[in-house]
Design a protein that fits this description.
This protein is an alpha/beta fold and 363 residues long. It contains 14 helices and ten strands. The protein binds fructose -6-phosphate. Fructose -6-phosphate binds next to helix 3 and helix 10.
Amino acid sequence: EKGPYKHFMAKETHEQPIVLADAFARYLAPHRSEVHLPEEVDFAGCERIVMVACGTAHYACHVAKYWFESLAGIPVEIDVASEFRYREPPVGPGTLGIFVSQSGETADTLAALRYLKGRGGRSLAVVNVETSTIARESDVALPILAGPEIGVASTKAFTCQLALLACLAILAARQRGAIDGAGEAGRVEELRALPGLMATALTLEPAIAEIARDVSHARDVLFLGRGPMYPLALEGALKLKEISYIHAEGYASGELKHGPIALVDEAVPVIVLAPSDALFDKTVSNMQEVLARGGRALLVSDAAGIEAAGAGAWRTLAMPRAAPLVAPILYAVPAQLLAYHAAVFKGTDVDQPRNLAKSVTVE
Ligand code: F6R
């Protein structure tokens, strides 16, 4: 049940520190700084990974693409399941398909899995429901351990998908000799710090609700991010659309001047997801372009980032400082809470948005 929360989405958002800690207790070795999975996954022999999913699960794949490529050096292709299954992509024994699905029953994702299996690819399912069809039909299935997710908008399943995919990317890097013991230990400790950072981020809820009050009056909202924050921008836009019915779009920051900047005026909030990392200055220069055109930019960064670039912004939100590996998981929290509070201000049905079903078992 919902306990003290008004909606399942709120409850599930607040459960994230606990479920992530549970997942890491399962996927990280207890007394060593190492990834330790209950089932063998072989990345050594794979030529490429294709990651297939729908909606929010697809955005989790999009983040993981950066991790598999940068940590393990494995080429990764991502696709939405409804496209993958019909475009007849070449698949061979060197292809590892990773199918990510909370429910494990999504029709298009299941069809994509069957397509890959039929052409000799190896399959790994990343699911929340362990007894699901996608879990049963995959060569290997790993549970994300998020616990039941009732709210139609995915929250804790997204971050638990990311947590497991990060563990898989570290494991892949080890198997391919792309990371040494010290490197792995460093990444694992970054993951172990995440539940605490998530708890801190959740304490920002009153400030995020204040911002959401203004955002709830907007007709259109843009989300911008670079690198692994780009899929987070897509996820922030999806969350806002689906529960508050405000039109929102996510863009890679560098794409702004290739079209969407034409939308920018004082009525369009632009939400800039920019932790202080190697791409920070680039993202901030895109934010400056928004400000120079009279746009209202919300800078979501850490204290150092806000100190460096917060001056002209419409609003700022100071997140805890996070290692680059975990920042995309942490920044799911403001994306979720912003959408949640915008929806609450608008009075929409948060847990059962119109026209949506929790599990899409038809094409
Ligand atoms: C968005 C959302 C959907 C699902 C998508 C895939 O908040 O929940 O986009 O992520 O329908 O569902 P699963 O993960 O069950 O395959």
